[in-house]
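Demo today. Your pick:
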Amino acid sequence: MANNVAAILNRKTKKIISISPEDTTLQALQKMADNNIGSLVVMKDEQYVGIISERDYSRKVVLMGKHSHETPVAEIMNTDSPIVSPQHSIEDCLDIITKTHARYLPVLENGHVAGIISIVDLVHETSLMYKESADQLRSYITSA
């Protein structure tokens, strides 16, 4: 089992779900709900410009008394989210998330969006790695 972001992306859907910075936060929320996800890549002219999450919405729209049908994605999106590559290790990503308190990490490869990984994806991958190690140890012990 590979111990990197590429391993996570290989198990996830290849479809990149994105939104424009000019779209409203209501449209972003609807797209997240329709796809049962908690974040979207924000793209302008097929280039990554940021990420928007349900957390951004709750903190920057709801708590600020703004209206989701009037507030553009550009106003609340996160433009300084840490970015990783498919070659980043799971450990590196966990370290990044711990230090930055990010919940989602955009994955870029050669300047193009390869996907998004979440803290849940990283925990799941870590669990799979531990299970595989335990299975190998059991096999080694029982064959000895």
Q: What stands out?
A: The longest strand covers residues 47-53. Strands lie at 18-19, 39-44, 47-53, 104-109, 112-118.
